[in-house]
Amino acid sequence: MSGRINPSVLTKALIATDVAFVAATPDSRTAPLLRELIDLDGTNGAPSVLVTPDEASAVSMVAGATFLSGVRALAIMEASGLRRAYEALARLALGHGIFPPLLITVRGGVGERDWWAIGQQVTLVRCLEALGYAWEQIDTEEMADAVLAKALATADIQECGVAVLRNF
Predict the structure, then answer these.
(1) Is residue 1 part of a domain?
(2) Domains: count for the chain
């Protein structure tokens, strides 16, 4: 995976793909994006933002927005947050066929320098596959709009879950 993506690129991609609502649990990698989204909060086409205390709350809020209201929404979390949200996602996705779309920071790949992050990439893909989530990775800033648009088009049909992965 290449270098980090500028938060402004992701903000523009969220606006371009008509994401109206974001629920997120902040971490060190998502904080710059969330600060930018909170500053815009619902203006200039930017999504409204709800900061949650944990990832299970974030995916539950996004599930409500997408399933009950038909709003294009996205849960943003770090890779370890997927494991924290796993039970809620399993109940929603496998039990009820409700698949909240996810944007996940990735850590733990080749070149990782933090010992505690190594296991995150190992478990991330396995958890997504077990939940029936398709996933795609944004490798460059130029890919952000296209990958997010493609993922959200799949999410709109609510037949499977979709996650977009990125080191940002």
Answers:
(1) no
(2) 1
